[in-house]
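Before relying on records like the one below, remember that each one covers exactly one chain. Contacts with other chains, cofactors or solvent are not represented anywhere in the record.
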Amino acid sequence: MSRTFTLSSAVIAGCLAVAASSASAQDLRGWNIHVEDYPVSIAMESFIAEVTEATGGEVTGTVFHNGVLGSQPDAIEQVRLGALDFGVFSLGQMGTSVPETNIVSLPFIFSSIPQMYELMDGAVGEAIGEGMRERGIVPLGWYDAGARSFYNSIRPINTPADVEGLKIRVMNNNLFVMMVEAMDGNATPMAFAEVYQSIQTGVVDGAENNPPSYESTSHFEVAQYYSLTEHLIIPECLCMSLSAWDSLSPEHQEIVMAAGRASAEMQRELWQAREAASMEVVEAGGTIVNTIEDKGPFQDAMAPVYEAFLADNPDMAGIIDLIRGAE
């Protein structure tokens, strides 16, 4: 009788230990809009793998690719509310929830991709990150989404005057509408999925995006002029819900942050390789690519956009000055 009781107690204790271990383990759910072999996707999977290994399996996670967990605006809100644990989001899509992120959507705010890396990894990223935290989002790493340039079916764009009269699709953000209108173009917000047919049928003359997006959507088939204005350099953020972050131990927070930064370094390298490959594809497909050595006239044309933004957001002048004052 005594031996039976001892064995039963041991079994119960073992079950309780397993249950306690399971209860303490955290399985994170992550949102991603891209296909599984995209640079962002590969870096996100690396992030989770590193966290899982470094925590000994105490923190694990699953990345749900292809936007299967909803649209980007919805996913941003779900992360803010803690319904999703992490995701990679364009800061261009986050402006409604986090006004500070609109700063990086200002045309020509960054002079180059390397400058963007340096500033986002430093004081500018910290300042924008504070605004994100106040609204329930913790930035873990800044991903590269390239530089966006204009493409159209009518003519090359070498000066702001070349935009005049062109119907250009833009993201649904008033900053981008003002950007095109400042050059006397006709800005047309519409869903990205509608762009190919809209150019083909003449609803719009063109759009603007980075090389991988221009190539992977086959937009180069209907808009053969690709002008490297590089007017927008909008990073993406590997972000975690503040509630998920707060649920981690200090040790696990340190691991997650380090893994996030490492994944950003990986993603940047993968992105640059993908961008070069995309340019090879579009040029082989007959795209007429023109570079713009002097972007001064374009930058000067953006003065009304900056004036309007600062009028609405005077408290963000310091961050803008910080970026503009950088070399």
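Residues 250-284 form the longest helix (35 residues).
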